[in-house]
Amino acid sequence: MLYTVLTATLSAFLSVAWTALAEEATRFGHAKILQRGSQIDEAYDYVIVGAGTAGLTLADRLSADGKYAVLVIEYCYPISDETIARSDGRNFLDPGISYNISSIPQVNMNNRKQAVIIGCCVGGSSAINGMVFVRGTKPEYDGWAELGGPGSTWNWEGVLPYFKKASHFNPPTEEMARNFNVTWNPDVWGQDPANKLYASYPNYGIPSIIPFYKAMAKMRNMPIPEDGASGKSGLFWNPTSMDNKNYWRSYSRTAHFDGIARKNYHIITMHKVKRILFNGTTATGVQFSPRDTDQILTVIAKREVIISAGTVHTPQILQNSGIGPKDLLQQAKIPVLIDLPGVGQNFQDHAFLSVNYQWGVGTGPVLSNITQSGNASTIAGPNLGAWIGLPTMTDDFEKIASRYESQDAAQYLPKNTHLTVLAGYRAFKKLHAKLLRSTDSNWLWLPLFGTPGGIVMSMHVVSHGTINIDPENPDAEPIVDYRALSNPIDMDIMVENIRYMRKFLKSEEFAPWKPTETAPGIEIEGEELREWIRKVLIPTNFHPIATAAKMPKEMGGVVDEQLRVHGTKRLRVVDGSIMPLLPGANTQQSVYMIAEKAVDLIKAEQR
Ligand SMILES: Cc1cc2nc3c(=O)[nH]c(=O)nc-3n(C[C@H](O)[C@H](O)[C@H](O)COP(=O)(O)OP(=O)(O)OC[C@H]3O[C@@H](n4cnc5c(N)ncnc54)[C@H](O)[C@@H]3O)c2cc1C
Ligand SMILES: *[C@@H]1O[C@H](CO)[C@@H](O)[C@H](O)[C@H]1NC(C)=O
Ligand SMILES: *[C@@H]1O[C@H](CO)[C@@H](O)[C@H](O)[C@H]1NC(C)=O
Ligand SMILES: *[C@@H]1O[C@H](CO)[C@@H](O)[C@H](O)[C@H]1NC(C)=O
Ligand SMILES: *[C@@H]1O[C@H](CO)[C@@H](O)[C@H](O)[C@H]1NC(C)=O
Ligand SMILES: *[C@@H]1O[C@H](CO)[C@@H](O)[C@H](O)[C@H]1NC(C)=O
């Protein structure tokens, strides 16, 4: 098998024959993409795996001062300009720009499978996401630090500077702010003129959203923070990752790749990284192949290999390199370089479903035409939502928290879970029992669109899944198992989410419009409601995390506080997979923050 190559000495480089494409500048609307993949060198200072959200951010920053050569290797290719302009996320299912992966059947979802949608293009998932640009709350990032151990700098104070660095905030227009109660705290945002990753608001609003704002503001104990980005829960407006000059998507490619012509920043597309090359346990380069071929190519990394392949593929690359759970590697006949049981474990994602409502015939708020100059098709996900702690949702929070606390930690984890992974889950559980009782941790996201009913999303899950290689075919797509609802607490919380939506729709603001619940139907409760949840639950909002979690090795962690893979040298993971627990927020802003913080961690070792 190809695998023998791993053990071959590094001096035995295969000659790299590249099609000599002329360095080509392609016009992409207002911006230029230079395709630099034409000829790669034998060695680079940094080799980055994956030109996604984190990968391009790193590549831009690490190449900026011109001192270090950076190569990014990407399996996919740049997408068209049109896709950026449309920017409303409707390309989620376009087979051309996302991976074609399906989970294994989920036993607690009536054996349904779930499409695992992740971006396949230069820009990765930031190119196809819903553009909602939010952060989690202070206790959630403090939890990242708690799980990291004493002295961790991943607490709220330690991540805030990197959140500020990661984007360029554009406040809403005065009219928008006045008409729709949009407030913000400039102290928690950055506005570096050189940063082209924009966080902006649309310049118009839908009047029918106003009664929703009013009704939510009146819900019991509903906090209304000046700005959710200051690490608070409650009802607030959030920006989208959008350039407010042309209302186009702002993403890792437009911010950290387009228009950047540097001799020391190379990207090669349509090539798949198969494994990391080592001398002992020191990473020395990577082995990769042109897409869909077995041709073997290698490149040397003089300083570091950085894996930014995202939560689904990062564990695959590690496992195929001999870093992962020993039993699994042996089953796949992969020589064990480092027995690291946490690789591919701890997998978490947000879970949601839709509770459908309709207004009585001939009633409802006046539906808008666009009231100001703007274009509906340029706005993406929702900009207004309620992000709610469990004690704000229900008086039963204490019952749920103590029920969770009294569980045996091993009870709902996969059989044969390694003792270190179990130790990590114990720490996670202790932390989550605390978060369940906190009004400052987001357990429910209820986006407000100005129409009745809609999405209720669980922003924390206590069921942990796995993403592992298929031992029969380690180079094929990995086996994704959400293990959705495997812990019954997640079901209890989803029931509370639905009840909260029902309470909300009973608000006096809506009474004249006679809302009716069409699915599941207001009479559906108890075991029937649980049955319905199993039928409709979507166990992902495409926010996968934690398969290379930043935790100590003895707690089932994969990377240390500097994001270095435990037991290795010169190998880091920088992407969504390092998050040890979900932020109560969509994940892109946290990924950009992680990349910005990683840049400083990497630079600290350049001396
Ligand atoms: C449909 C969808 C909607 C979303 N909506 C939102 C939203 O509204 N708001 C929000 O905040 N977040 C949202 N997210 C989540 C957010 O976009 C992701 O959390 C984030 O972009 C992940 O960044 P990443 O760097 O970890 O991985 P990615 O950006 O996915 O990058 C990984 C890159 O690695 C490449 N790669 C993988 N394996 C290999 C290999 N072996 N060799 C070479 N290259 C490889 C991939 O092709 C990809 O380009 C959404 C995601 C999706 C998919
Ligand atoms: C996706 O994968 C499935 C099953 O492996 C296959 O049947 C289908 O044709 C694939 N779709 C695309 C667009 O490649
Ligand atoms: C703004 O907030 C105030 C106070 O909560 C409320 O009365 C008003 O209706 C809100 N306006 C809009 C446009 O949501
Ligand atoms: C591997 O590392 C050792 C110790 O640093 C060094 O002596 C040796 O030359 C290296 N081997 C290769 C093939 O680079
Ligand atoms: C919206 O536009 C249509 C067509 O121009 C018009 O008939 C309708 O009255 C408008 N509605 C509102 C609420 O402005
Ligand atoms: C809005 O944008 C879309 C896509 O860019 C375009 O097709 C459409 O014509 C625009 N509509 C208006 C009213 O400008």
Topology:
Blueprint: H1 4-7, E1 24-28, E2 31-35, E3 43-49, H2 53-63, E4 70-73, H3 81-86, H4 138-148, H5 156-166, E5 168-169, H6 174-180, E6 198-200, H7 210-217, E7 234-237, E8 240-243, E9 248-249, H8 252-256, E10 265-268, E11 271-279, E12 282-290, E13 297-307, H9 310-320, E14 323-324, H10 326-331, E15 338-339, E16 351-358, E17 384-388, H11 390-393, H12 397-405, H13 419-436, E18 444-448, E19 453-458, E20 466-468, E21 479-481, H14 488-505, E22 516-519, H15 526-536, E23 571-573, H16 588-603
Parallel strand pairs: 3-4, 3-13, 4-10, 5-6, 13-23, 14-15
Antiparallel strand pairs: 1-2, 6-8, 7-17, 8-9, 11-12, 12-13, 16-19, 16-22, 17-18, 18-19, 20-21
Helix pairs in contact: 2-16, 4-13, 5-16, 12-13
Bound molecules: flavin-adenine dinucleotide and 2-acetamido-2-deoxy-beta-D-glucopyranose (5 copies).
